[in-house]
């Protein structure tokens, strides 16, 4: 097995552990989950910080959500396409949030030099996040495109607006007051006021 394949295998085995234990996961737990010896971890990664960074990068990658959106049949009604996409995007956000929350709660934010964390955050904004959002926006454009002749705005603008509504509303609702995915899509497509 190549070093890259071994690293990927370890990352995929460790992600669920990080969501459960955060940075407190032990090398014994990592080795057991990956089906390898503890020494193998450190032949693939120089230390746990590098492994955690690789896990974070994997969780932030939009590949899974892009694949899910690409599988949505374009011949179904736009509303159904948007609901499926919103659910896939929501699952992606929950996965990222669970990992970041577990790492933060276990003190991961305290483990690294604050200046280095700031540099890493700025680097992720410049490349990964922008590229990730552009890819998600592109996937959403494809969902709007079959209806382009009857849309009030171009698919590109609608995709951006939909993502802004979907992502911007997360965490703003009071407990028990959060709209369902279908409600978000309904308001997006039909507005907030009932037609008479």
Shape: elongated
The counted number of beta strands is 0
| Share in helix | over 70%
Mean pLDDT: 84
Strand content: under 5%
Element order: H for helix, E for strand: HHHHHHHHHH
User: How many alpha or pi helices?
Assistant: 10
Structural class: mainly alpha
DNA-binding region: 26-45
Protein name: TetR family transcriptional regulator
Domain HTH tetR-type: 4-63
Pfam family, one: TetR_N
Blueprint of the fold:
Layout: H1 3-21, H2 27-34, H3 38-44, H4 48-60, H5 63-70, H6 78-105, H7 108-111, H8 114-144, H9 155-168, H10 181-190
Helix pairs in contact: 1-2, 1-4, 1-6, 5-6, 5-8, 6-10, 8-9
Task: Explain what this protein looks like in three dimensions.
- Keywords: DNA-binding, Transcription, Transcription regulation.
- The chain has 196 residues and is mainly α.
- The protein has ten helices and no strands.
- Helix 1 (3-21) crosses helix 4 (48-60) and helix 6 (78-105) crosses helix 10.
- The protein is elongated.
Provide keyphrases for this structure.
elongated; 196 residues; mainly alpha; 72% helix; single chain
In short:
This is TetR family transcriptional regulator. This protein has 196 residues and is mostly helical.
């Amino acid at each position: 097995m190549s070093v890259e394949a071994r690293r990927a295998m370890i990352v995929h085995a460790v992600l669920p552990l990080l969501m459960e234990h955060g940075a407190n996961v032990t090398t014994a737990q990592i080795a057991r989950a990956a089906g390898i010896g503890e020494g193998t971890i450190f032949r693939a990664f120089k230390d746990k910080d590098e492994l955690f960074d690789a896990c974070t990068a994997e969780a932030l990658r939009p590949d899974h959500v892009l694949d899910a959106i690409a599988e949505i049949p374009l011949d179904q009604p736009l509303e159904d396409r948007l609901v499926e996409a919103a659910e896939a995007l929501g699952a992606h956000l929950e996965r990222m949030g669970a990992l970041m929350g577990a790492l933060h709660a276990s003190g991961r934010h305290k483990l690294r030099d604050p200046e280095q964390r700031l540099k890493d955050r700025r680097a992720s904004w410049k490349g990964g996040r922008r590229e990730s959002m552009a890819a998600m926006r592109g996937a959403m454009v494809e969902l709007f495109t079959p209806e382009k002749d009857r849309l009030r705005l171009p698919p590109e603008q609608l995709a951006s607006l939909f993502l802004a509504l979907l992502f911007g509303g997360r965490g703003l609702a009071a407990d028990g007051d959060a709209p369902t995915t279908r409600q978000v899509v309904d308001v997006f497509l039909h507005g907030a006021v009932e037609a008479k």
